[in-house]
Amino acid sequence: xxxxxxxxxxxxxxxxxxxxxxxxxxxxxxxxxxxxxxxxxxxxxxxxxxxxxxxxxxxxxxxxxxxxxxxxxxxxxxxxxxxxxxxxxxxxxxxxxxxxxxxxxxxxxxxxxxxxxxxxxxxxxxxxxxxxxxxxxxxxxxxxxxxxxxxxxxxxxxxxxxxxxxxxxxxxxxxxxxxxxxxxxxxxxxxxxxxxxx
Length: 198
What we know:
By secondary structure, this protein is an alpha/beta fold. The protein is 33% helix and 26% strand. Strands 1, 2, 3, 4, 5, 6 and 7 form a 7-stranded mixed β-sheet that branches.
């Protein structure tokens, strides 16, 4: 089995590589927009499906397309990627001292157009962050490619996160344990996805 990973995220590429699975990077040119409102916890999975359905290249029999999307949800507000410094500040202030949810939706698709999708949720709680800490993090790390304006594996995660309930890797962008199980079921439950690392 060979995975086609449709993602620009370097973190997703690193995480998938750590599973020891064979994969290639592909690009999908679709507008990541939902035509109708959906509950906040369904946004990421619906966006992952849009990406998967937008892939038009011919696939081989042994290939599986993997698409994913991650959103941060605080209350009923979906926090995507900040467009600028002001939005990053506002997002980090809103989750400072509070618990929020990180949802990653993943979609698998084979050559025949059969899809299987799922959502993984992780609860994350930050301690109260100071303005200086928020300013420093944004200035040094420029988290404009990250949902909720933070990376859990970066400085702000190290000094700010008090509690996490669920998959750590889900917050980084790919719920590895769940993805591994779902791939096993999707491809062939009789052939475990174990590969020798070179």
